[in-house]
Amino acid sequence: MKIYFSGDKSKAICPCCGLVDTTFKYRDVFLTETKKTVEKILVGVCDKCNQTVSTPAQSTPAIKAVREAATESIEAQLPSPYLEVLDLACYKINPDAAHEMRKRLVLFYIHKYATQEFALKKSIQAHIDFSKKISVDSPKKRFSMKVSKKSALEFNKLVSALNKTKTETPKSILAEIKVDILDGEKFLPELRVLSAV
Ligand SMILES: [Zn+2]
């Protein structure tokens, strides 16, 4: 893959001028679809009208990072035992990184469901079994995470696959985490690697 530097020349199609010579320069680029600005990336500038007309491959990761930055949130008020399961599971995976693991663990599960590695039926059953033990006077606590657009889409897919609400869905995930990680040792090696990086 070729790396360009500021001042290098190329060619591109300019919407105003057609096929033109371009010069690479560092500029801020406004992304209309997300209304966010990617700061100081290398772009191809039309030599005739000075518009930004292209982006070299080396600027793509920076654009992608801004486009997919955590913007959506997953929120629910959950009876405390669900969050105790989450915290204890994170602690079992890595006591030194338990707090940072919370979001990663939930996203790991959402992703596993989205790629259909999990049987939804099993999670629904786990949820039923776990919820039976929770007394009605358990305090409720806020479960909230900022996630990328991609994870939010995966979460929404899971909400419809489970045929549950956005509040009920995290409960199914957390009940499954209890069965897999607290009652068993599923994914532990994989998750320990994830927690160490
Ligand atoms: Zn132009």
Written description of the protein model:
Helices cover 46% and strands 25% of the residues. The chain folds into 2 domains: 59 residues, Ubiquitin-like (UB roll) (Roll), CATH 3.10.20; 125 residues, no CATH class. The two termini are 27 Å apart. The strands form 2 sheets. It has a 4-stranded antiparallel sheet with strand order 1-2-3-4. A two-stranded antiparallel ribbon has the order 5-6. Helix 2 packs across helix 3 and helix 2 packs parallel to helix 6. The longest helix has 17 residues. It is an alpha+beta fold and 197 residues long. The structure holds zinc ion. Zinc ion binds next to loops.
Please describe the structure with a list of short key phrases separated by commas or semicolons:
single chain, 197 residues, alpha+beta, Ubiquitin-like (UB roll), four-stranded antiparallel sheet, two-stranded antiparallel sheet
Give the secondary structure arrangement, pairings included.
Blueprint: E1 9-14, E2 18-31, E3 36-46, E4 52-54, H1 60-67, E5 72-79, H2 80-93, H3 98-114, H4 120-132, E6 140-147, H5 149-162, H6 168-182, H7 188-196
Antiparallel strand pairs: 1-2, 2-3, 3-4, 5-6
Helix pairs in contact: 2-3, 2-6, 3-5, 4-6
The protein binds zinc ion.
Residues 14, 16-17, 20, 46, 48-49, 51 line the site of zinc ion.
Give me a quick take on this structure.
By secondary structure, this protein is an alpha+beta fold.
| Total of domains | 2
Cofactors, ions and other ligands in the entry: zinc ion
Low-confidence stretches: none
First-residue to last-residue Cα separation: 27 Å
Q: β content, as a range? A: 25-35%
Query: Which descriptor suits the 3D outline?
Result: elongated
Secondary structure: helix percent: 40-55%
Q: H/E order of the elements?
A: EEEEHEHHHEHHH
Derived from helix and strand composition plus strand pairing, the structural class reads alpha+beta
Strand count, sense and closure of the main sheet? 4 strands, antiparallel
Strand order of the largest sheet: 1-2-3-4
Task: Describe the oligomeric state of these chains in a short phrase.
Answer: single chain
User: What is the arithmetic mean of pLDDT?
Assistant: 91
